[in-house]
């Protein structure tokens, strides 16, 4: 069977959802199909590792995008795209059905990175709503959880599960938790809160493999140490889903290469979200994996699919985390030459200006709120001297 749509969005995440919303705003009549591997229709993902664990009364239904009740949008859920034929402007799904398009959005995001070990309900990564449901079923008070990976999601889950009375071990490869993203002084403060909470921290450690025996998971580290738990969670990064794009002949390279209009090397295919490699107006060509990037890139791609010619101008996307009583926000590149940074103490919190060759590449706040649009403006037009950065941002 062959079907035809004016617009097809492959990927039911936040980028795809925001694109669909904009398509509907600017073309209410054009036929629109969203194809997603998940059983759930599009939803907002950050609460899966944050509010769902720290706010008992958080309204879980509120995470769904309004478009799930839009009868003018068709959905294929629990569906995998097998092939994109860019020449004939069509996709083929796993059952052999073919769907033609005028414009296609490639927003397939990424899959969690893994290590050697068998598939098990007790081993997971929190990327989807179904992952959250699986972890909630396993999260009995007093049960033992090992989390591998000390990034934002790993840290958020470690804190959230601990306050839900689970026994939590967090394993990460650095000396200090999150020292790759935070200046050493702030990384030590960050780590200390986990020590005070009672999370067991295993630093300078790399996971090698795991095995499952009955209702226990045994994790082996590269140095031979072994840890046992009821549940094992991976938060060691994401691998962008590029196979379909590459097979379709799209230009790839640390993501799907797109121009300033988020148009790929094929004029009828756009890209957005975690897989998008684009020319950022502030810090240059880059790829970001975060909510802010997914939403804004999806919106611009959606508008351009309907005929707009709008350059993507949301430079230096936001990344953030809320862990315990710590709130961190950052814009721009937050890991390049971290030790070359200006740190200001302001209102009991901190503002950090990361520098590369004397110029600010990223700005991070720790327990203080600032105008992030002004922070982006500073990155776009920095003062002549890096010392001129001091005092340039005021707390709100």
In total, how many beta strands? 25
Q: How would you describe the shape? A: globular
Residue stretches low in confidence (pLDDT < 50, at least 5 long) are none
**Average pLDDT figure:** 95
Rg result: 22 Å
Helix proportion: 10-25%
Which terms summarize this structure?
396 residues, alpha/beta, seven-stranded mixed β-sheet, globular
In summary, what is this structure?
The chain has helices spanning 14-26, 51-54, 129-138, 152-163, 184-197, 243-247, 291-305, 372-380, and strands at residues 2-10, 32-35, 73-76, 81-85, 90-93, 98-106, 110-112, 123-124, 144-148, 167-171, 200-202, 207-213, 216-221, 226-229, 231-234, 238-240, 256-257, 269-271, 276-280, 284-286, 318-323, 326-332, 341-346, 349-356, 359-366.
């Amino acid at each position: 069977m062959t079907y035809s749509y004016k617009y097809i969005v492959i990927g039911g995440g936040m980028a795809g959802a925001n694109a669909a919303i904009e398509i509907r705003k600017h073309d209410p009549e054009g036929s629109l199909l969203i194809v997603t591997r998940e059983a759930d229709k599009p939803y907002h993902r950050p609460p899966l590792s944050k509010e769902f664990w720290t706010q008992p009364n958080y309204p879980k239904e509120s995470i769904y995008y309004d478009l799930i009740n839009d009868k003018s949008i068709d959905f294929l859920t629990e569906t995998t795209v097998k092939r994109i034929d860019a020449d004939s402007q069509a996709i083929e799904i796993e059952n052999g059905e073919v769907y033609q398009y005028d414009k296609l959005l490639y927003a397939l995001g990424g899959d969690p990175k893994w290590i050697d070990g068998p598939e098990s309900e007790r081993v997971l990564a929190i990327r989807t709503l179904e992952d959250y449901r699986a972890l909630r079923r396993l999260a009995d008070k007093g049960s033992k959880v090992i989390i591998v990976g000390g990034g934002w999601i790993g840290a958020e889950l470690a804190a959230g599960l601990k306050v839900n009375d689970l026994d939590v071990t967090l394993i990460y490869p650095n000396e200090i938790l999150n020292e790759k993203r935070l200046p050493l002084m702030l990384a030590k403060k960050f780590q200390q809160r986990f020590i005070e909470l009672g999370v067991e921290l295993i630093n300078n450690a790399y996971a090698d493999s795991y095995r499952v025996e009955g209702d226990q998971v045994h994790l082996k580290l590269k140095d031979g140490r072994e840890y046992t738990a009821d549940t094992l969670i991976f938060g060691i990064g994401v691998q962008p889903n590029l196979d379909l794009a590459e097979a379709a002949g799209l230009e790839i390279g640390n993501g799907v290469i797109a121009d300033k209009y988020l148009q790929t090397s094929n004029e009828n295919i756009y890209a957005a979200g975690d897989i998008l490699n684009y020319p950022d107006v502030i810090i240059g060509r880059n790829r970001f994996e975060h909510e802010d990037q997914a939403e804004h890139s999806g919106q611009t791609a959606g508008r351009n699919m309907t005929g707009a010619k709008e350059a993507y101008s949301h430079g230096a996307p936001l990344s953030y985390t809320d862990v315990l009583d710590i709130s961190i926000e950052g814009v721009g590149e937050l890991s390049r030459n971290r030790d070359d940074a200006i740190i200001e103490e302001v209102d009991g919190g901190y503002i950090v200006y990361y520098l590369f060759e004397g110029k600010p590449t990223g700005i991070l706040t720790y327990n203080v709120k600032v105008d992030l649009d002004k922070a982006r403006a500073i990155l776009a037009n920095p003062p002549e001297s890096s010392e001129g950065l001091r005092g340039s941002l005021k707390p709100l």
